[in-house]
Amino acid sequence: MFIIYCFIAFFVILLMPSQYESIDPLLIVVFSFVFFMLLFIYFIQRKKYINNWLRFDFVFLLGYFIVHFQSPLLYSLGLDFRVISHPWVNVEVVNYATWLSLLAIIFWLIGTSLISEKKYRLSAKVTNNVVLDQGLGPFLDKVIIIAFPLYIFVAGSVVFSGTYDGGQSWGAGAGYFYLLLTTALYLRTIVFVLSLNKDSSYIENIKKIQDNKIYIASLLFFVFLFLSIGDRGPIIRIALIFSVLYGIRVKTFSLKTVIISTCVAALLMTIVGMGRTKVVDNAVSKGIIERGYENLLSSEGLVIPTAELAGSNKILFAAIDNVPNQYPYLYGKTYMVNILSSLPVPGITKIFTELLEIPRHQTTTTHYFTYMLIGPNPTWGAGSEVVADVYVNFGLFGVPIIFFVFGMICARYSYLIEHLNESVKVSSVIIYSGLVITALSINRGMLLYPLMPIFYMLALLWLFRMLKLVVRRA
Questions:
Q1: How far is CA 391 from the centre of its chain?
Q2: Considering its fold, how many domains does the chain have in total?
Q3: How large is the C-alpha radius of gyration of the chain?
Q4: What are the C-alpha distances in Å from 382 to residues 94, 109, 232, 312, 323?
Q5: If DSSP states are collapsed to H, E and C, what string results for 2-43?
Q6: Does residue 201 belong to any structural domain of this protein?
Q7: Which of 180-184, 298-302, 438-442 has the lowest mean pLDDT?
Q8: Does residue 355 lie in a domain region?
Q9: How far is residue 69's CA from residue 358's CA, in Å, rounded to a whole number?
Q10: 3-state secondary structure of 368
Q11: 93 part of a folded domain
Q12: Which is higher by pLDDT, 130 or 472?
């Protein structure tokens, strides 16, 4: 596969367009065709070793297509013009941006091809036993019981108002308890799914639910709470980590099942998104599903469930148009800041940025693009995008290099966990789960998105082990 991907990379490099040129619909279609051909080759190769389709790479590559190819392809076919016609977009960079997106994913695939899946498949056992720390589940239940009420108390009544403002109305400090709560829920979900037996019966699963009443009740309350205000992110992340690990651990998901489930979930999340409101009276008068369904029926034009995700591509267009012509490269500043901010060490990021005199708008690419596109005093954020995140930090040549390394990391942990064997450590499952949690959002965000959930879950695991050691010695 390595040779095939390298040959395709050479062919794509020969097709490199100018940074500024008129959009070429035929070229966009060719780039999209090459992307689909790459997916076909990649998934056919993986089908030799694994039958389960609900896994990190499927979700990541689906999100990658939506963000990087959907809007240029639909524009070229004359089906959708919303993203390309946005004021932030210089249409003359669309060819180059789509080419760069294709080049990045090819080098991601080259990176994956250097990791032997066959080795992990052969080492897998019939009975998959991941050694879980005894007492970890009850410990996390206690953390959830403490963090949940504290989050609600500090955030205030806004969490029950049915209105959505991205957490801007939360009380001071609510974000810390929210982070603790979500981290505990992620790790508790890992513990719960890994406690299930392969191909377990419904009766066995019901017994497991009864044995994990605190976790199940907390999880359902969490889902319904955030569903009521239209905050889809936490729900999607919980659903991803649960379903992906379930497919690996208990029962595999066929391609047909994954496609149908994805379509249903996309439609549901679209209705939830269209039902969000910032007005309390609207939230009281109608439920979020009812509002969303009515807005869906009354909407003019074609409603594409993935349109919001695909709209993130305008950040890449803006990045290529503005950097380095009007704004400088960041040379990895945001990566250093992101690594430090992901560590559960209070104040370390502030010390670092003040020491190196890094302005706030250069601490993350989200802030950088907001400063670039909205100005120094924004009332909302522009967001980020994964290829743009790498491009503004490391330039054109940095994009294939970084994606090559990222592909190797993804393959290493994907193959290890998706072919669970008796030597797998909980920490490895946590790293893979961090990738799964951000498999969609990483495409419309920063490459280092997985670090925070990974580091905080590892920190919780370490804290449990330290407390357990102290108790034993006492």
A1: 19
A2: 1
A3: 23
A4: 19, 29, 18, 9, 16
A5: HHHHHHHHHHHHHCCCCCCCCCCHHHHHHHHHHHHHHHHHHH
A6: yes
A7: 298-302
A8: no
A9: 34
A10: helix
A11: no
A12: 472
Distance, CA of 314 to CA of 247 (rounded, Å): 34
Q: Which domain holds residue 230?
A: 136-298
| The pair of three-digit structure tokens given for residue 117, joined into one six-digit string | 């899946």
Determine contact, residues 161/283, Cβ cutoff 8 Å.
yes
* pLDDT-wise least confident of 75-79, 178-182, 227-231, 367-371: 227-231
pLDDT, tens digit, 9 for 90 and up, residues 41-70: 999 999 999 999 999 999 999 999 999 999
pLDDT category, 165, cuts 50, 70, 90?
low
Residue type, 212: N
Within a domain: 346: no
* Contact criterion met (CB below 8 Å) for 50 and 254: no
DSSP assigned state of 364: S
Task: Give the Å distances, CA to CA, from 444 to 202, 207, 313, 449.
Answer: 37, 39, 8, 10
Please state, in angstroms and rounded to a whole number, the distance separating the CA atoms of residues 407 and 57: 10
Among 362, 373, 354, which Cα is nearest to 314's?
373
Identify the residue whose tokens are 């503004």.
392
3-class secondary-structure state, position 408: helix
- Count helices and strands in the chain by DSSP H and E runs: 22, 0
Closest CA relative to residue 365, chosen from 336, 399, 404: 336
Q: Name the strand (E) or helix (H) holding 238.
A: helix 232-249
Give the number of residues written for the chain.
474
